[in-house]
Amino acid sequence: MRLVILDNYDLASEWAAKYICNRIIQFRPGQDRYFTLGLPTGSTPLGCYKKLIEYHKNGDLSFKYVKTFNMDEYVGLPRNHPESYHSYMWNNFFKHIDIDPKNAHILDGNAADLQAECDAFEKKIKEAGGIDLFVGGIGPDGHIAFNEPGSSLVSRTRLKTLAMDTILANAKYFDGDLSKVPTMALTVGVGTVMDAREVMILITGAHKAFALYKAIEEGVNHMWTVSAFQQHPRTIFVCDEDATLELRVKTVKYFKGLMHVHNKLVDPLYSMKEGN
């Protein structure tokens, strides 16, 4: 497990975007070799998406041979609703890059058979060869995707009832009206994300500080589902200074020291155009 600490949200977003960019380029995707990327929604990844769009428009990065699988989608919200995750992904990312729409996979929260939709999503991931890099964010209660506190740490894609804390947090996207906020969602499971070859979790802001503490300094606990990624062989937590406020000083110093060892990954774009 690695913890990468940057000074602020913008630098954390840029670091994450450069890391994703580097991974895709090093993979050398092609017509018979797609890079498979798991993606989150919410406010945290927006800065990362803006940077990825920038790299694409600058000619540094193509998504032509990339397949994506999103973490979740609300149940019962029309696909074209401005707060659906379909709308979020297309407005904030997909329509600005060269990804083939058929390679961008998002769960259908309006499917006639929701369990069949979840099973089909798992099958599509398997048929794609699994996820090379799954990017995620977390809620203040440490949930990843919509794997709310108490979720099984070996769970698969399924229908979930949202916790009240999540509904309250999402009310800001629905004019503050709780009655408009969906109460159920389709979500990948903790086990689904754990199956990825690499996982990167973005955690920014003081309101996520206690969740980061639970994620890395205490034991694995299904009440803090993000803590499961302590047991993944390749997990990177990317955070800003504000998110470290609940960590021990020696923990912060230890991981900041490691960043000098991994210096090339802190600013990986310098070598990309040279093909290194």
From TrEMBL:
Q: Which UniProt keywords apply?
A: Carbohydrate metabolism, Coiled coil, Cytoplasm, Hydrolase, Isomerase
- Molecular function in Gene Ontology: glucosamine-6-phosphate deaminase activity; identical protein binding; isomerase activity
Which of the seven top EC classes does this enzyme belong to? hydrolase
Q: Which InterPro entries match?
A: Glc/Gal-6P_isomerase, Glucosamine6P_isomerase, Glucosamine6P_isomerase_CS, NagB/RpiA_transferase-like
Which pathway is this protein assigned to?
Nucleotide-sugar biosynthesis; UDP-N-acetyl-alpha-D-glucosamine biosynthesis; alpha-D-glucosamine 6-phosphate from D-fructose 6-phosphate: step 1/1
Domain Glucosamine/galactosamine-6-phosphate isomerase positions: 15-232
EC numbers? 3.5.99.6
What name has this protein been given in UniProt?
Glucosamine-6-phosphate isomerase
Q: Which organism is it from?
A: Neomonachus schauinslandi
Give the source lineage, highest ranks first: Eukaryota, Metazoa, Chordata, Craniata, Vertebrata
